[in-house]
Specification:
Elements: E1 3-7, E2 10-12, E3 18-25, E4 34-39, E5 46-51, E6 57-59, E7 67-72, E8 77-82, E9 91-97, E10 100-101, E11 105-109
Parallel strand pairs: 2-11
Antiparallel strand pairs: 1-3, 3-8, 4-5, 4-9, 5-6, 7-8, 9-10, 9-11
């Protein structure tokens, strides 16, 4: 059974940093593209970061230069390092591989 389990969300002040983790089980982690999405209140879920199986990365313009997606094949875990956080980054963040989704983790950026 494939599972993606997220951790690392929380409350952070503007300008701060957080690192989200997504631990995958039941699948060959390194053979698939990995994605991070987020959904802000009242908005549609949006794709913000992708890492292909060949380790190429793409980012939404809204997070480019501030967020970094990475993966640790030995730990079967993907990460999203988020720096210079802004209030508009407040959202529930989801990891995604193929048709599998994490449960979501809330990131709140506020004073």
């Amino acid at each position: 059974q494939v599972q993606l389990v997220e951790s690392g969300g929380g409350l952070v002040q503007p300008g701060g940093s957080l690192r989200l983790s997504c631990a995958a089980s039941g699948m060959i982690f390194s053979m698939n593209a990995m994605n991070w999405y987020r959904q802000a209140p009242g908005k549609q879920r949006e794709l913000i970061a992708t890492m292909t199986a060949g380790s190429n990365t793409k980012y939404a313009d809204s997070v480019k230069g501030r967020f970094t997606i990475s993966g640790d094949n030995a730990k079967n875990t993907m990460y999203l390092q988020m720096n210079s956080l802004k209030p508009e980054d407040t959202a529930v963040y989801y990891c995604n591989i193929l048709w599998y989704w994490g449960q979501g983790t809330l990131v709140t950026v506020s004073e």
